[in-house]
Amino acid sequence: MLRGRDPIVRSQAAQALGRLADPAAVPCLAHTLQTESNLNTQRHATAALGAIGTHEAAEVLAHLLYHADRMTAQLAQQTLGAMAIPEAAAALAVQRALARCDWAALAALDPDQIWALQPALGSPQFLSWTPGKQQRALEIAIELGLTPPRNLAPQLKEMGIFLGRVHTLGDVLGSLFHPNAGVRTAAIETLAKNRGKWVGHILRWRFRREAQHGAPTAAVAAARVMAQRGDWRGIEHYKERLYGTDEAPARQAAVTLGSIAAPEADEALFGFLTSLPAPSVQSSRTHAAVWLALKDRGAQAVEHLRPILSSPNPNARRILAGVIARSGHPEAVELLGQLARDENDTVRRAAVEALSGLNTPDAACALSQLADRVPPSLLAAALQTIAHPEAAAALRALGRPATEVAGLLTTTTGKPIPDARVQGIGEYADDDVSGRPVGAPALTGPDGAFYLMLPGDLGGLHLKVTLPGAKGPLFAPVALWANRANTIRVQADSLLHRLLVEAESAGG
After folding, report:
1. What is the distance between the alpha carbons of residues 91 and 113, in angstroms, rounded to a whole number?
2. Could you tell me if 409 and 391 lie in one domain?
3. For the chain, which has fewer Cβ within 10 Å, the N-terminal or C-terminal residue?
4. Which CATH number goes with the domain that contains 30?
């Protein structure tokens, strides 16, 4: 009777199904709401779904929330609001979040609510949204594990997103010719999932095109995928440029090799550092670019280069110490401690200097354990550059004096100043804005506290304080008790651009 010719009969049939409240009627009512033009029948069919009140009924109504006809969408919204089931609440919550562009609320959907976002994707209302809103909704849906409908394949492609259940292999291959480099890059990365031999030929061809007159990002992606498949010709291409005589392409090759993020690329960068005894004037910028590229690679580069710890080449082990020190690797102290016990003196010295450059309590503890392997003068010089009490304790254990400064930085009203940089400065003149650094700098904590350790002669010592956001540093002379623990209070007067310093020895 729902398919009858008389709209009154169809309307009464919908009412009857609502009174019966049999879940078996949900597919019939859903079909009616897709094809029915009579408003009264639509209203009764919607009410019938609300009376049935199952998850399937709520899912049909959730699709109607995004109907092209505003009246149909409002009927679905009212019906869902009257349903006392979690599925109805989820559908309405998602609809409100999309209406308000509340992306945080969408991204935080509970697992049992995620399904309610699916009806919006590809709906008539979705197609009327701005491209930016469509893109953000699709991104969140994919992050939540939903699969957009096939009709959104072109939009996903323009976003550089390829999904196996939405796109075909032809879509991916065709995107290799897309004018947008981001889309070409995404297509190259998608091809990496296909293990066919023919893919290797396409990747090499695409790499040559991109490297010659294409986009660097696409060329990097192709070289990375090629390396993952055991083809290092892309890396060799940039390695050849790295060793070239033209400085600009060489520096760019260093950046590119770092971006490839493959073990072979990191090894190529490291090999450049060990291939020459010292950088020439012409290649100094290239060396700096290589160091920066390895630093940007961080801990992952150290993992790729870890076998060099046991390399027979002492120069390689020495350079590895510098790479580790710049990497932020969680095991940097342990790895440098291993190199600090190396049989080669230059390797030990480089590792000790790298440990001191970390300026951490763990580094101070590691240095304190090297008394039997490192000359006392070298060990003391390294400890004196670490601004932590652990370094002072290690110095005293070596029989070396240490001048400690425990300070507090505040405003003239007593308010603590966090995140300020404090350092001892020697040979300071009124027209000098830098001076000779004495000891390692320290940052003030949330309560304005800081700690310094100052080596050597303290005559003419000044305190240099750089406040957060300030244009220039503040200076003030400070008299300290050498080889003792000192306590100072520093007040920063930003109005008069000066520091007020009070110091006393821990002994009185």
Report:
1. 8
2. no
3. C
4. 1.25.10
